[in-house]
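Anyone else keep sequences and structure tokens together like this?

Example one:
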Amino acid sequence: MGLTPAWIVTEDGLVLAGRSVGAPGTALGEMVFTTGMTGYQEAVTDPSYHGQILTFAAPMIGNYGTGPRALESDRPWPPAVLMARAGNMAGAAGPVGWCDWLTAHGVVALAEVDTRRLVRHLRDRGAMRGGVSTEIVPEELQARVLEHPPLDGRDLTPEVAGPERRLGTHGPRVVAIDCGIKRSITDGLVQAGCQLELVPSGVSAQQIRELGPDAVFLSNGPGDPAAVTPVIATVRDILGDIPVFGICLGHQMLAHAVGLRTEKLPFGHRGANHPVRRAVDDRVEVTVQNHGYAVIADTLPAGVEITHTSLFDGSVEGMAIPDLHAFSVQYHPEASPGPHDARYLFDLFVEALAK
């Protein structure tokens, strides 16, 4: 594990120092942070972080090792990871140290970073482009940051979708549109009793109809939801004909399909302690979240109901369109890792299809 000095630069000029504990190199992307204290390997293998530099707000990351059970996909997606302190020992998660694992996968990773200052900066000024480098000086790094394209307006789903595949052997047949789906989501759906057929984000409504599914699932994923126009068009076409369930990016794409819009949040929701109020009974669920955009429901189209609301900022966390047999949530019911308050949603989805 190296101790090479390294630099962090934001597009508005903040410069911070750190020490390399991962692969050497230069990484550019949107600067974001997560407040989760555990689940570091799950976080970096979540395709929703594609194109983002991830800062861990917790003071110690990597203290229980890494292993295959914690993988949400086949590779890490953030080009860089920033930490205050990084562990590198084997532990309950597996035999490979965290920093060794990041290095082996080519991730630029820094420790000894003033993450408290960086997180406060992003909270105050919003998510922004940034760069991390073990190779070049801050002035050159910031010039490259300013040339880097922002995430707004970019459809990144074709870059993260996996191969077409089938999972599960019994139950309702569900076509999952893969925009960067997490393994724990596919596991949750199969365990709830689905047969899953995963197809890439460019799939057409006609192709879905030819598969003859009982329902369609819209997955999580990276980028600007408004830019994922192929999926939005497909969902708009099948609504009312085939039941639909969406999570995270899937929730946002369903919203666009029914005439709502999305806006970028100042610094996003990323962590495992987000309270969400359920409208049906006023109960509060503690949820896992990872998103930078939110559905705006200033004017609701006919038939659309808001089912869940964030207690942090009042943003839309869930909606339903009963007449079209469609519903979605902004948070992650699979919560891998995190609280299991919302895992029942997978069972509700499958039970509804069996009626």
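And example two:
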Amino acid sequence: MTKPDVHAFHHEPTGTFSYVVRDPGSASAAIVDPVLDYDAAAARTSTDAADEVIAFVRQHRLETAWILETHAHADHLSAAPYLQGELGGRIGIGRGITKVQATFREVLNLGEALVTDGSQFDHLFADDETFAIGGLTGRVIPTPGHTSDSVTYLIGDAAFVGDSLFMPDAGTARCDFPGGDAHVLWQSTRRLFALPDDTRLFMCHDYAPGGRELRYETTVAAQKADNVHVGGERTEEEFVKLRHERDATLGMPKLILPAIQINIRAGHRPTPEDNGVAYLKIPLDRF
């Protein structure tokens, strides 16, 4: 199996890893889960993290074929439109985004201000759809459970799993967001565990449990053997019980309200109002 070149970028404020994935036989590349900087106190965006990605792509004279979102993130804002304006490429996400849009249109009472057909994105991937990055072949593996739109991008021997898995010593992401389901996430992990043992898995987050150094890459074999939530002899019933108990103790992500409203629009802002300013909504006592 072809081994793509993978370069990771860590966004410390949100604990997010973004990636540039390159076809070793050409200049073609994809960007996975890019981050837009956001100052919550001032509701002001900036592009420092995205500019690092742009500088890397230009330094290596890469051609951006795709900007890929593993799901509509709740912990950071997407920089996809900004990167597209600078580097080109098509913005893609799994077709489950339409369910997330419909859910949050109701939760946030967005009405006609948000269409829920996914048309904000350039492409909605079907389950197991394939795509090309130069000579590389990518495949879209549905991995819902954390969210209903979560997908994994398998590109050569490298799989970008979003929040479906964390490093083995950290387990999995929560399943208590609207559309989340621990039983569904369990089944998604079985799809990932069916990949060859030496498949490289790239995380979207690492919170360095126990104070260890940051890590973002592991393998299917390591996850199957050692993942503290879904590996070893763990059963589905045990995982669901563990996940429900852990999720009940978790607060909401700090950026969920701005992040979701931006990310279900493919990183675009709401339409500016008559004063030329775009506004986000904050539902009181809803969460």
